[in-house]
Amino acid sequence: MWSRRSASVPTHGSAKSQGSSQACARRQAGEVSCFTGKIGMTFGLDHLGIAVRSLAAAKSIYEKLGLAVSAEEVVEAEKVRLVMVPIGGTRLELLEPTSDDSLIAKFIAKRGEGLHHISLRVPDLVRVVEKLKSDNVRLVSNEIKTGAGGHRYIFVHPSSAGGVLLELVESVL
């Protein structure tokens, strides 16, 4: 059974993001819902990943709206260049492929630009992954990886998440 609490999302890397009772602590902009799961941890929406052909073109609408856009970051292991756009209590992650053989390039070739994944923040990624494996949940990879901003992450396969690519991410200090 999931219990719902209305609260704001903490900033990545804050001490608040590490404790389950504090994971939904107040953040300066916007309120979102956080959930305490059956395994006693609090989860929150971290970001929405959007696959784009061109970061320059994609980020321009957000800049025109007056939103802040982070500096570009390259994640070599995933063959992507990305920016984050904080909005409300979460962020948009714009993902541009840096190679034709990257997963983002293949996604765009098959489905076009658009929503690629939903990312949930978890306080203890190792514990969550162990729980999912014990429940025979299909993961894209069995290895926890380090991505943008030094955050640890893993993806749940869409076949185990209602057709949605679900990223689980944990901040590191």
Question: What percentage of residues falls in helices of 4 or more residues?
Answer: 10-25%
Percent strand equals: 25-35%
| End-to-end C-alpha gap | 30 Å
| Rg of Cα set | 16 Å
What is the mean pLDDT?
81
Largest sheet data:
10 strands, mixed
Structural class: alpha+beta
Order of helices and strands: EEEHEEEHEHEEE
Q: Low-confidence parts lasting 5 or more residues at pLDDT below 50?
A: 1-35
Q: Supply the number of helical segments.
A: 3
Q: Quick gist of this model?
A:
The protein is an alpha+beta fold.
Q: What does this 3D model show about the protein?
A:
The chain is of the alpha+beta class. The protein is built from 3 helices and 10 strands, in the order βββαβββαβαβββ. It has helices at 55-64, 103-111, 125-134; strands at residues 3-7, 32-36, 42-51, 73-75, 80-87, 90-97, 114-121, 145-146, 152-156, 166-170. Strands 1, 2, 3, 4, 5, 6, 7, 8, 9 and 10 form a 10-stranded mixed β-sheet that branches.
Itemize the secondary structure elements and their pairings:
Layout: E1 3-7, E2 32-36, E3 42-51, H1 55-64, E4 73-75, E5 80-87, E6 90-97, H2 103-111, E7 114-121, H3 125-134, E8 145-146, E9 152-156, E10 166-170
Parallel strand pairs: 3-6, 7-10
Antiparallel strand pairs: 1-2, 2-3, 3-7, 4-5, 5-6, 8-9, 9-10
Keywords for this structure?
globular, alpha+beta, 173 residues, 10-stranded mixed beta sheet, 3 helices
